[in-house]
Amino acid sequence: MARKRELSPETQQSILVLRNEGYSMREIAKKLKISYNGVYYSLQRTAQTGSNQSRKRSGRPRCTTKQEDKYIRVSSLRNRRLTGPQLASSLNSTRKTPVSTSTVKRRLRDFGLQGRVAKKKPYLRLANKRKRLRWAKEHRHWTEEEWKKVLWTDESKFEVFGSQRRTFVRRRTNEKMLEECLTPSVKHGGGNVMVWGCFGAGKVGDLYRVKGILNKEGYHSILQRHAIPSGQRLIGANSVLQQDNDPKHTSKLCKNYLQQKQAAGILLVMEWPAQSPDLNPIELLWEQLDRMVRQKCPSNQSNLWELLLEAWGAISPAYLNKLTARMPKVCNAVIAANGGFFDESKV
After folding, report:
1. 130-175, pLDDT tens digit by residue?
2. In this structure, are 161 and 199 located in the same domain?
3. How far is CA 232 from CA 77, 200, 228, 259, 267, in A?
4. Domain count across the chain
5. Do 91 and 163 fall within a single domain?
6. Considering 111, 134, 157, which residue would you say is the last residue of a domain?
7. Which domain holds residue 44?
8. How far apart are the first and last CA of the chain?
9. I need a surface site. Which of 49, 104, 190, 320 has the fewest CB within 10 A?
10. pLDDT tens-digit readout, 243-288
């Protein structure tokens, strides 16, 4: 027999009001379009308990104890990569009656532990965190105009087709950037089109296609033909060159060349903390560029490069200014994280 629908609190209150006004139970049932028995038992319960609220039900008893619930929570927090089936298997090894994976997942959700894809971030040693923290403290009071004098540079690879393997972890809502909830990543080869690009003062500079492996000689040529000319064109003599600590960037050939340009008063070179792509706003520009290109569905390498150039020229100054305007917040977020990673979506 199907379970009957319970009367709402409003309906039960209406029954009581109509009864006090002198209506019979049958008249109340007809008026409210409910059964006679529903009216009868509602009034009977009110007479017995003094309230028209439904009696508290015991419900189905939980199949796990408080100690087992705590075990599930602690086990997940100790190893964020344990899956629901693994936690259920570990718990069932000490139980006579096994619990299902769904039960374990419900317990985890009760504790606010949700299964999410782990973000990939470079591995940070203590020395890396200290350098990031020092950099953030040195630049936290820079004005928006000072940030606009920086020529942000980087290389990036774009693929015609491709996918990223996802790693699931279990974390709370505010634990997105917790170290054990991240997937460490390292730079590696691959991709179909590699580019070097830069932007500053609300405008994009050159976008250069790198063919083959980029070595120190190739990067030295980029500095001569693209980086410095772009800095002078976009910013002027007071430009500040930003580049990461890739070995080809810090080679003697490139370092000596940049020192000569600094001595000549052409530019300044910003000291950059290692393992810190999240501090560079051009990373967000690469993501935006990739989204714009993906909408056009590139078919091959040549078509991908054409679409990249087209999208690069369509980047708005308002978007670029927004990237530099967020830099003070980035510095404060790094300081708050004591040099560690921060939640970029909240900056």
Report:
1. 999 999 999 999 999 999 999 999 999 998 875 444 567 888 888 8
2. yes
3. 52, 10, 6, 16, 9
4. 3
5. no
6. 111
7. 9-49
8. 56
9. 190
10. 999 999 999 999 999 999 999 999 999 999 999 999 999 999 999 9
